[in-house]
Amino acid sequence: MRRRILVIATLDTKESEVCYIAELIQAKAHRVLVMDVGILGPTSIKPDIPRQTVADAAGAKLEDLPKLRRDIVMDTMGRGAAKICKKLYDEGRIDGVIGLGGNQGTMIVTTAMRALPIGVPKVVVSTVASGNVRPYIGNKDIAMIFSVADMLGGVNIVTRTILSNAAGAVLGMCEVGVKMPTATGKKVVGITAFGSTNGAASKALESLRKKGYEAVVFHASGAGGSAMEDLITQGTISGVLDLTPHELVAEIFPQACDVYAPVSPGRLEAAGRSGIPQVIAPGGLEYFVYGPPETVPPEYRNRKTHYHNPYNLNVRASKQELEITGKVMAQRLNRANGPVAVIIPLRGWSERSSEGAPLYDPDADRMFIQSLKQHLKDTIPVFEVNCHMNDPQLAEKAVEILDKFMRRPC
Fold first, then answer.
1. pTM higher than 0.85 for the full model?
2. If exposure means fewest CB atoms within 10 Å of the residue's CB, which of 19, 28, 54, 367 is most exposed?
3. In Å, how far are 7, 233, 277, 334, 403 from 239, measured between CA atoms?
């Protein structure tokens, strides 16, 4: 079966590389569409989607872009490419995407790719793929391959191999990859987890599967929570057991520089907008996550701390921070269009904060509970359970509540 691959690059700087990739894909009897996102120099090939069309899609005039600040230009071409990319996919005209770029080209290419649903093949060859790629990838399943050599002056002994590997990767994804269904025979439940809430997540996963649900666990790493919410919006997930909404506290207090701050803002809102059932617990809300000790802001260094490993430590959230977190959580849950419940273990929200553990602080936990209950609608139940987060009874109760929600007639 012939696949249709979209190739995105700035043809004024990557023309020979684009031609090489196109030849490799066409040699395997697949079709190629080329999108040019450059704005400066001329090209000798005619792209299927010229730069003028990309600029037009962003509501800009191509001739005006060279006069603008560089970051504005990149944002404009990225938005235009994203709009076109999504339209092509929605119309069934492409099966996968491969892009090339340096720092700025990578930004444009990945902006376009992030407009596509999770599960669509996406590969980028980039000169910056060996660094911090989170700003480029966000919470999407984008495969980034380090170009090793700069893509300057045409294909060479090094980039020939890297580019051919990348072409093989996107073709393999298109030929072998299984498309993610938006609906299955089973109801799909998203579960959030940390290592410190693994006991609760594992027990919930087991219980849900016994009840016939397809359960998927997402690490509450910012990207994980955001990816789950993307899949809710896509219609893949039909219920949520949000045992570890850690990204919420990271989002509310960006000055804390939590490394798990959400990739996308608005944590806890996607399920509510979609009207699907959700049960929320406060797992991981009681601490911030940092890298090595020197990454902790000075004002946080006198707090209770758990040294997770040489590259990662956790710092306790204060009473005041949890009071605000409780209020924000209530406000977001109050807007939900579907059934919602909150379940709170009274003996600690993670391994880090059980009695005798480094982050144990029941007074701060109580402040969160008081604030949440004060601002939450009376119609949203709060179940306080006299156990620890990872005790089996917490997961069993949470699954019981969610199961009742999921079985209600629409």
1. yes
2. 28
3. 36, 12, 5, 17, 9
